[in-house]
Here is the input.
Amino acid sequence: MNNLDWTVLDTPQDIAEIACEKLSEIEQEAISKRGVFRIVLAGGSTPKLAYQMLAKQQHQWSAWQVFFGDERCLPADDPQRNSVMAENALLQHVAIADNQIHIIPAELGAQKAAKVYTKTIQNDLPFDLVLLGLGEDGHTASLFPGHAHAQNKMVVAVKNAPKPPAERVSLSKKTLSQCRHLIFLVAGAGKHHAVQQWRNGEPIPAAEIGFLQQGEVLLDGTSVIL
Ligand code: 6PG
Here is the structure.
């Protein structure tokens, strides 16, 4: 069970600002201790503001190793891809080399991509920071309620996902939990019910992401409707 710190902010802009502040602290700690900053980027639309803000800041980009929490099985250049959103908002604007960016090859299909990505990440655990979103049904990454996955899998192939596209690839709960810091970015009134379920201790997928040390949930006012 997570002992997360919940922070309610006024706007998605505030969430992005606080997320960038916390990311910078985690980045500095990781690089000073290990010389590398391993970050897992969240998909969806909420993180875009934070990515655009990061792109305007100074960071030790050469020490970054960028991974993705999940990906949609679409062509590599499809605008609906999480990797394309991250490229457009952040990665193409900063000095991170291509060999520091580890995109999930979801265009290969879920099964094959899951196998490939398992090899990609196996020597990069634990991550320093995992960023995640929250779906209206309580999903996170591409881990949806009612979808069981083999507990021992590091990366899972997802079929018939309720949020299109149906076919996706996702880091597993086990893998997402292997991190030093975890930050959920949650915005929008549509998330209110999922947040209430979470705070009531219901086992929504987001609530089942454990962590080695520190977890935070950054929410805007509408997602909690105080
Ligand atoms: C995806 C994401 C997914 C997302 C949530 C929230 O591929 O869609 O990985 O888990 O984070 O659905 O999406 P929004 O930020 O767009 O509300």
In short: The pocket of 6-phosphogluconic acid is lined by residues 42-46, 70, 72, 82, 133-135, 139-142, 163 (CB under 6 Å). Strands lie at 5-9, 37-41, 64-68, 70-72, 127-132, 155-158, 168-171, 179-186, 214-220.
